Amino acid sequence: MASETDVLIWIQGNLSGGIMDPLMEFVSYSGDHGAIWLIIAVALMIYKPTREAGVVMAAAVLMGHVLNDWMIKPLVERPRPFIEDLSLLLIIDPPDGYSFASGHTVKAFAAASALFIYDRRWGAVLMAYAALTGFSRTYLMVHYPSDVVAGAFIGVMCAVTAYAVMEQIKKRKLRPGFEAGE
């Protein structure tokens, strides 16, 4: 069975170069700090029929950021692949912080899954982009494959949780006699 480093070495030896390098850089950088996902969420919030989806998307992305970047990464403290294996060549500036789990992937799957709950067609488009985002992180040698898989799982769970919270809020608002502070 191949190790995760062997997978990265295979990617580097068989897929790297040509148009793939700038494409993977673009995909990865588009997800920096979750900005693209929050911009989409805000755009959805502007239009009343998609407002709830936008709120759930933003909540899922923010939840994923706090859970992963502030709690999981500092707890696990997994070094990035290029630090553990100096034969892995970076084509981007080395990122700071720990490897597990991939924050780009968490935020991408949180956003895509949240939208998928509300709109399967556009959600599927974002899910494909989220998967590409996750792959870009291994392609760029800044995350192990398991960092990406864990990031996808965490992101999906954040979206499901944000949606469940929204459903509970809606139920409370619909309950007769409910008033703030009761």
N to C succession of SSEs: HHHHHHHH
Low-confidence stretches: none
Helical segment count: 8
Q: Globular, elongated, flat, extended or rod-shaped: what is the shape?
A: elongated
| SS-derived structural category | mainly alpha
The overall pLDDT, averaged over residues, is 92
Termini separation: 58 Å
What is the number of strand segments?
0
Helix content: over 70%
Report the biggest beta sheet as strand number plus sense, adding barrel if it closes: none
| Amount of beta strand | under 5%
Rg of Cα set: 18 Å
Please give a structural write-up.
The chain has 182 residues and is mostly helical. It contains 8 helices and no strands. Helix 6 packs antiparallel against helix 7. It is elongated.
Task: Please write out the topology.
Elements: H1 4-14, H2 20-30, H3 35-46, H4 51-76, H5 81-84, H6 103-118, H7 120-139, H8 145-174
